From TrEMBL:
It comes from Bosea vaviloviae. This is Phasin domain-containing protein. Keywords: Plasmid.
Amino acid sequence: MSQLLSSLREDVKGWEQEYLSQALALGRAAFKPHLDAANDLWVGCVRRWGQGSGYRDDIAGEVQGWFDDEPSLNSARQSVESGLTQLWKELVLDSLTQATRFEDQIAEDA
């Protein structure tokens, strides 16, 4: 049982890494066209440059506000949320279910 749990712990780390990798790609693909076209956002970020401390926090707030308020992102958000749910199911939950089927483990050990 200890070996099974140890193996499962390692598998979960791998599934998590794969999920994060695919989630990053999904988000990039969904939001990049919107970010590329967000001229006002980038002009605001450039305008803030060189005005003293707090630049990172100000830019983070500017970008967060844009993501929260930009209506053209609604379909991209829905696409990402749906994709993340599907990825989680496929890469983590289904793998975990398969790895913890005791009847399969018993048959392999017999």
